[in-house]
Design a protein that fits this description.
Blueprint: H1 3-29, H2 42-98, H3 103-119, H4 123-138, H5 160-192, E1 206-207, E2 212-213, E3 217-218, E4 223-224, E5 228-230, E6 235-236, E7 240-242, E8 247-248, E9 252-254, E10 259-260, E11 263-266, E12 271-278, E13 289-290, E14 293-296, E15 301-308, E16 313-314, E17 318-320, E18 325-326, E19 330-332
Parallel strand pairs: 1-5, 2-6, 3-7, 4-8, 5-9, 6-10, 7-11, 8-12, 10-13, 11-14, 12-15, 13-16, 14-17, 15-18, 15-19
């Protein structure tokens, strides 16, 4: 708003308020009439002069107030612009670290991006940092080289150089795996922080589509309230993933096409209260596969919303619903194949 328009509105508002106060006082004091005089004595003239100076002083104070307000707004915009500029610079540096050849430098970039997400001046900038961390998890990574066979397939023993090269490859795999596990740990930590806290990531989108989770991921006590969380086509292979005592309320959490193979995934004591949590897919091979390991829904409470296992395949995985309760929620196993687990709802 221009200074001229702001002053005009301020004067009009001041006049209306002053008129209203004056009229209210007249009514309150029950004035009947004001006696008129044909003479203007010195006392009355002095009172008029004081009134004139008071009006001028009030107008000046009003102008000063408007100017101070505009200056404050300009300072706030400038501070926000400066904070955004500094955030962008730190973001570029953190992303450069994340693309380094050194796993140690990448680890520093992970913590730098997580810190930037915590300090982001806007929700959009925070979401950008989270998107980059999730994108890193979705990138291809080297497979575990395993142990070097001795003897080799050709019957010979590996040379010292070959042993060293294999060990270097194995060390690099472990180092890069540690970077990925650190991201998963930081995500879980931030989803346990209360939403009203400045560092919470609750309500943000989390895209872990196709990610391989082969280590510990702790969502124990996390709250999914708003935003979209995708584990579509993710592979849980080894390690433990805990959603114990987590609360799903109003958030869409998707496990469509996820594969649970050799991992222990616990939803023990979790509460599903609104939102949609599908473990389903449109085509059979896109549906979730429970092939081995353990998935526990023990003592889960389904109070509202939909939990869908439509088209899921159960083959050798231990899925438990012992003590689960449904008080208004819907759990669907439509089209599921294999030994569908008994829910045991109370």
């Amino acid at each position: 708003m221009s200074i001229r328009k702001a002053l005009t509105l301020a004067f009009v508002a001041a006049a209306l308020v002053a008129g209203g106060v004056f009229y209210g006082l007249v009514v309150l004091l029950d004035f009947k009439e004001i006696e008129s005089t044909t003479q203007l004595d010195a006392t009355t003239l002095f009172d008029l002069m004081k009134l004139s100076f008071g009006v001028v002083a009030g107008a000046g104070a009003l102008v000063a107030l408007v100017v101070a307000y505009r200056r404050q707004r300009v300072d706030e915009v400038g501070a926000h612009r400066e904070a955004t500029r500094l955030h962008t610079e730190r973001f570029s540096q953190a992303v450069d670290k994340l693309g380094s050849d050194s796993p140690a430098v990448r680890l520093g970039g992970v913590h730098a991006l997580a810190g930037l997400a915590d300090d982001a001046p806007t929700q959009d900038l925070r979401q950008t940092c989270i998107d980059v961390l999730c994108a890193y998890l979705r990138l291809p990574f080297p497979a575990d080289p395993g142990d070097l066979s001795d003897p080799l397939p050709d019957g010979t023993s590996p040379t010292a150089e070959r042993r060293d090269a294999h060990q270097d490859k194995k060390d690099r795999y472990r180092a890069l795996r540690e970077v990925r596990h650190t991201i998963l740990r930081l995500i879980g930590d931030h989803y346990r922080i209360p939403k009203d806290a400045g560092r919470s990531w609750q309500g943000c989108n989390l895209d872990l589509t196709g990610v391989t989770i082969d280590g510990r991921m702790d969502f124990n006590g996390a709250v999914f309230s708003g935003g979209t969380v995708s584990f579509d086509n993710a592979r849980f292979s080894g390690g433990t993933v805990s959603f114990q005592s987590a609360r799903f309320s109003g958030s869409d959490v998707s496990f469509m096409g996820a594969t649970f193979a050799g991992s222990h995934v616990y939803f023990t004591g979790a509460t599903f209260a609104g939102g949609t949590v599908p473990f389903s897919g449109v085509v059979t091979f896109m549906a979730a596969m429970f092939s081995c390991g353990e998935v526990s829904f023990t003592s889960v409470t389904f109070s509202s919303g939909l939990v869908s296992f439509v088209g899921a395949r159960f083959s050798g995985c231990e899925v438990s619903f012992v003590g689960a309760k449904s008080t208004g929620g819907t759990v669907s196993f439509m089209g599921a194949m294999g030994p569908v687990p008994s829910t045991g709802f109370q």
